[in-house]
Amino acid sequence: MAELHFFTGTMDSGKSTLALQTNHNHAARGRSGRIFTTHDRAGEAILSSRLGLMHDAIEVADDFDFWRYVVDSLTAGARIDYLICDEAQFYTTEQIDQLAKIVDELQIDVFTFGILSDFRTRLFPGSARLVELADRMNVLQVEALCWCGKRATHNARTEDGVMVVEGEVIVVGDIDSNDGPPAEVAYEVLCRQHHRRRLTAARARAVALSPEPLPFGS
Predict the structure, then answer these.
(1) What is the structure's pLDDT at 181?
(2) Helix or strand or coil: residue 190?
(3) Largest CB tally within 10 Å, which of 4, 113, 133, 177?
């Protein structure tokens, strides 16, 4: 029986690497699949991991219809055994419903990968729908770490080095390397405590070097 899988974790927990590995494992067994992504850091129609691995993919725009794409492909004689869907948090709820329909009515396995919540700690609509519909939900065991060493549970966005909790939900950036000048838009994974306090690695270093104590409750 085909299943809808959802693999989730914070940024920097290896989701895209696992998506590429999953595709490799199935293709190596003679199965035929399709790879989808959207808003990948490497550009359009590319699935990339932070380890440097890349694979061509089909870009998913808001008006992309998974059901129509698969049905048209099968009607034209193509073989599709599984779908790899990266950055699924950015998919619309209608697109997640289409993926579930593909599993149920066409018996095609669908493997989705994405983060649960945005930099404001709010669930992405696509991820929320996957939580509701997925046959299997898997939290990645490769734990991303906050700068303090605790398990990272939240995704933080910085703009010119300052953490923000408001703004456009979809802004493509990358994990802040903390080397050199800050990027205009970057991301960092934090534990809940330091996300709540807006205490990024850079700010923690600045506080440590400052003679002024950190204000209580900041």
Answers:
(1) 45
(2) strand
(3) 113
Q: Among residues of the chain, what percentage have pLDDT more than 70?
A: 89
Distance CA 32, CA 198 (A): 45
Residue 194: pLDDT above 60? yes
DSSP symbol at 62: T
Laid out side by side, the sheet with 154-159 consists of 162-164, 154-159, 185-190
Strand-pairing partners, residue 162, are 159
* Token code pair at residue 27: 């293709």
CB neighbour list of residue 134: distance below 8 Å, 6 or more residues apart: 4, 5, 6, 112
Catalytic status, residue 3: no
Q: What is the pTM of this model?
A: 0.77
Structure tokens at 182: 């800050």
One of 3, 44, 87, 132 is an active-site residue; which one?
Answer: 87
Residue 5: beta bridge partners?
111, 136
Q: How far apart, in whole angstroms, are the C-alpha atoms of residue 16 and residue 176?
A: 17
Average pLDDT for 163-168? 83
Q: Rounded CA gap, 203 and 31, in Å? A: 48
- Where residue 215 falls among pLDDT bands split at 50, 70, 90? low
| Alpha-carbon distance values, 53 to 24, 26, 44, 155 (Å) | 12, 17, 15, 22
Tokens matching residue 122? 């709010």
Choose between 166 and 122: higher pLDDT: 122
pLDDT by residue (tens digit) across 90-99?
Answer: 999 999 999 9
